[in-house]
Write a structure and sequence with these properties.
By secondary structure, the protein is mostly helical. It has one domain. Helix content is 41%, strand content 0%. The chain is built from 3 helices and no strands. The relative contact order is 0.27.
Length: 76
């Protein structure tokens, strides 16, 4: 199971830093100038299609789940 939603890796990182009030210089990377040599999917959407079809999808949006996770991490 996974939370649902979509965003770029840049927006995902930006949301983490904004929510945690961390000041950083964040740059967008492209497939032509990746910061490291790893394989990152160009486009990936989080969806629970099978759970939806069964009527048991209880997962929320990824942004809400991210905030919940970051809150737990800050509590330590």
């Amino acid at each position: 199971m996974t939370s649902e939603g979509f965003c770029s890796w840049y927006k995902f990182g930006r949301e983490i830093f904004a929510y945690t009030k961390t000041i950083v210089i964040l740059s967008k990377a492209t497939v032509f100038n990746p910061p490291v040599k790893i394989l990152i999917p160009k486009y990936s959407v989080l969806e629970n299609l099978v759970l939806k079809n069964l009527g048991i999808n209880k997962m929320g949006q990824c942004k809400v789940a991210l905030h919940s996770y970051l809150n737990e991490q800050q509590k330590g």
